[in-house]
Amino acid sequence: MPGRAFPVKVTTFDQPKQMAWTGGLPLGVPKNVRTHTISPCGAGSRFEMTEVVSGPMLGMIAGSLPDLTEPFAAFCSGLKVRVEGPPS
Fold it and tell me: In what order do the strands lie in the sheet containing 18-24?
């Protein structure tokens, strides 16, 4: 993603069930862990994405963190179209 403020590293990869990446600024200020999980749901699958932000100075910077509701929703919508669409 252009302009990303910190590098990320895949820290969990359990194909096809789960993938997580971890990133953050030096010294874990803050530390982000974003997890993508796919689980059975009826005749299909359920996708869940969570992000946990932590770190010793989180309280001081929490107000400056962006609201990721729209980017997360756009990512999930794009993924749904890609998964349910015709094979490429």
Answer: 8-14, 18-24, 31-41, 44-54
Distance CA 77, CA 50 (A): 15
User: The whole model's pTM is what?
Assistant: 0.73
The helix or strand, by DSSP H or E, that contains position 48, with its residue range, turns out to be strand 44-54
The pLDDT tens digits for 23-50 are: 877 765 688 899 999 999 999 889 999 9
What are 20's strand-pairing partners? Answer: 12, 35
Going by C-beta distance under 8 Å and a sequence separation of 6 or more, which residues neighbour residue 55? 24, 28, 29, 30, 31
Contact assessment for residue 39 and residue 17, using Cβ atoms and an 8 Å cutoff: yes
pLDDT one-digit tens code per residue, 61-74: 777 777 888 988 99
